[in-house]
Design a protein that fits this description.
It is a single chain. The chain has about 140 residues and is mainly alpha-helical. It contains 4 helices and 2 strands, in the order E-E-H-H-H-H. The longest helix has 21 residues. The termini are far apart. InterPro entries: AminoTfrase-like_pln_mobile, MAIN-like.
Length: about 140
């Protein structure tokens, strides 16, 4: 469907990107790591086209070409089955690039949850331990 296409939306001199790869989970799809936000040539952003006659087809030719080839811009991922894993590549990236806690209480809860998850990883062999002995945790 068109909802899963990553294309520029064009209205006169304004170009806004439809970045569906950032919200695939809402549609029951497996979330991939989103691509970088494309350059929308900020000079066009916020213009409404009433500032005189312009040939937008020439000025926005590169964006129009992407739009006309939109079928090749579909984001294809499998359906999401179950919950996303704690160490899913998308979540690992998300935790590295996002503000995780808005309040001190949220941070305390998050740090506790992260610690419990780390202990679980250590005891199930999902984390490299080196010479650490975790038998006492088991």
């Amino acid at each position: 469907g068109q909802w899963c296409t990553r294309v520029p939306l064009i209205c006169f001199g304004t170009v806004e990107w439809h970045l569906s790869d950032r919200c695939l989970r809402q549609f029951g799809r497996e979330q991939c790591i989103p691509l970088e936000v494309p350059d929308s040539q900020r000079a066009f952003h916020g213009r409404d086209g009433r500032q005189g006659t312009r040939d937008w087809t020439t000025k926005l030719a590169n964006f129009i070409a992407i739009w006309e080839n939109r079928q090749s811009q579909d984001i294809v991922t499998p359906n999401q089955v179950g919950r996303m894993g704690y160490h899913d590549p998308y979540l690992d990236r998300y935790w590295q690039t996002s503000v995780r806690y808005m309040t001190p209480e949220g941070e305390a809860d998050g740090v506790l949850a992260d610690g419990i998850e780390r202990i679980k990883d250590m005891t199930t062999g999902r984390t490299e331990l080196g010479n650490e002995d975790v038998s006492f945790i088991r």
